[in-house]
What we know:
Layout: H1 2-8, H2 14-35, H3 40-51, H4 64-84, H5 88-93, H6 95-119, H7 124-133, H8 139-149, H9 155-184, H10 189-220, H11 227-247, H12 252-263, H13 269-293, H14 297-302, H15 304-328, H16 333-342, H17 348-353
Helix pairs in contact: 2-3, 2-13, 3-13, 4-8, 4-12, 4-13, 6-7, 6-9, 6-15, 8-9, 9-10, 9-16, 10-12, 11-12, 15-16
Amino acid sequence: xxxxxxxxxxxxxxxxxxxxxxxxxxxxxxxxxxxxxxxxxxxxxxxxxxxxxxxxxxxxxxxxxxxxxxxxxxxxxxxxxxxxxxxxxxxxxxxxxxxxxxxxxxxxxxxxxxxxxxxxxxxxxxxxxxxxxxxxxxxxxxxxxxxxxxxxxxxxxxxxxxxxxxxxxxxxxxxxxxxxxxxxxxxxxxxxxxxxxxxxxxxxxxxxxxxxxxxxxxxxxxxxxxxxxxxxxxxxxxxxxxxxxxxxxxxxxxxxxxxxxxxxxxxxxxxxxxxxxxxxxxxxxxxxxxxxxxxxxxxxxxxxxxxxxxxxxxxxxxxxxxxxxxxxxxxxxxxxxxxxxxxxxxxxxxxxxx
Length: 354
């Protein structure tokens, strides 16, 4: 009698049941889209869209907040993994090319976005926000696609990832600037200067810790570390940098990337990358299915015309501006077109700014 009453009182938390649904959905999507020879990212998004709470004919998630939590965790581990593959040396190597490409793209897209907003009858503030939203590409989408296609070692891929890092740093400054203007309705120079100084301080700590502290620590403790300990220490360092980045007002995803690039300078970088890969694959699937679950079909129908206009602006505007930026930086035509086509979408920072 007691056992029966105990069994009926057990309640499975929504966080766990929603994760189970996300993983089942991801597994079905992987099998189906692999058979169809289509990109897995598209499969995850479509599967998440069908399993979202807008449709009654599939099992649906119970708590939308838990999905957002899983998506955030997915972004953190995806960016940490990207950092592991992209060290300081690679960043320095593509720095000039990436900066010219990123600045050309952002300036062009902010201008185009502003005028498109004005043509659709939006006020100036909304048009400025639209321009900034359309100017930032998606690191997670590009990383996953490059991984599937096996092109991460090609030269244009290094230029693309470098451009994305420059974009993320510029996006942080633009977020501060936009939030200041939106709240006070005027430009605050001191607020922007303070933000730049804070970013420089953050990057200085990144450089010092990356060059001296963590590589030395891992080298000295190498003979003590098992695979299990190395994985736990790596993920712990990632989350510590995420907490630090969020604490000083930056994106948690940027913090995860930075810690990945710090560990990439150590002698055990390749081994850590191998250990982290299953974690990245798991949470990468969780992220993309979660994004699909957050799509609301009613909104797509209600705003069909502006959605269609902005989709065309993003695809063609991002492609052309990035291609021109890569050409201006001295890249060959083929690599410039590859760079432009890779950057033709909007990303995580766009959703944060929105």
